[in-house]
Specification:
about 260 residues; mainly alpha; 10 helices
Length: about 260
């Protein structure tokens, strides 16, 4: 998902960006307020995306991922809410105002979460992230899991596209009504699962060949620039994250 740009956001240290997105996520999910998710998205995520020159790509990716979840949350919460004030009634269909309100609050949190992680993934090279995590003492295995998690969705998308093209070239119908698509599901899923297992084996062989579990200090050809200002900013972000979590705990205890 990384998009190469020569922007200020891209030039930030990977740890600075990771703490920044964690702080925004903690603020959006922990601070009280119905519309906190939307506010954080508009005030912080959007300007950061513009600064990183990835605004269009971010909005497009967030929309594609969010709208099915948002639609399902809206339908379920409005139609299956318990006692409440009906907006209208048609036969047995009676969406409730309280359910719609709760759905919009939940959608704001979904938008914030998706856009937050997408912003980080689009503006951070996976190799620099892994190197920076290992430089601060994170175990190699855990750093590898973090970086692989960011890459798994694009990897699956590319593999699915390749399998679809291959099956269509063999005459498999993949477009049409739900029955046609259901019949095409097995010829697509089976190669996807088998290919993923083969990828796991190839990755295991590759990391063993690179002495992934060696105990000695590793060197890298990539130099990650860091400044005293960014180090100070990371300390401030850590304090902010701790304060937000502490404030949320107090809020839950005394309200």
């Amino acid at each position: 998902m990384y998009i190469a740009r020569e922007s200020g956001l891209h030039n930030l240290h990977p740890l600075t960006k990771s703490l920044l997105v964690l702080c925004l996520l903690a603020a959006g999910l922990a601070l009280p307020g119905r519309w906190t998710g939307y506010i954080i998205f508009i005030i912080f995520i959007v300007p950061l995306a513009v600064w990183g020159e990835i605004f269009r790509e971010l909005i497009r990716a967030v929309w594609r991922i969010t709208w099915p979840l948002a639609l399902s949350v809206l339908l379920i919460q409005s139609l299956f809410w318990g006692k409440g004030t009906p907006i209208f009634e048609f036969w047995r269909i009676a969406p409730k105002e309280e359910g719609v309100l709760f759905a919009f609050i939940s959608i704001g949190r979904i938008v914030l979460t998706m856009s937050d992680f997408m912003l980080f993934a689009m503006a951070t090279r996976p190799d620099t992230l892994m190197i920076s995590l290992k430089q601060v003492g994170m175990p190699s295995g855990l750093a590898y899991i973090v970086v692989t998690t960011l890459q798994i969705i694009p990897s699956f998308q590319r593999k699915v596209a390749t399998i679809l093209d291959a099956q269509r070239s063999r005459g498999l119908e993949t477009q049409g009504n739900i029955l046609v698509r259901s019949r095409a599901l097995v010829p697509i899923v089976l190669p996807l699962v088998l290919g993923s297992l083969m990828d796991v084996e190839e990755r295991a062989i590759a990391i063993q060949a690179r002495a992934f579990g060696a105990k000695r200090v590793e060197t890298s050809l990539i130099e990650i620039s860091d400044t005293d200002q960014q180090k100070l900013f990371r300390r401030i972000l850590m304090i902010l994250i701790s304060t937000i979590i502490f404030f949320r705990i107090l809020w839950q205890l005394f309200t």
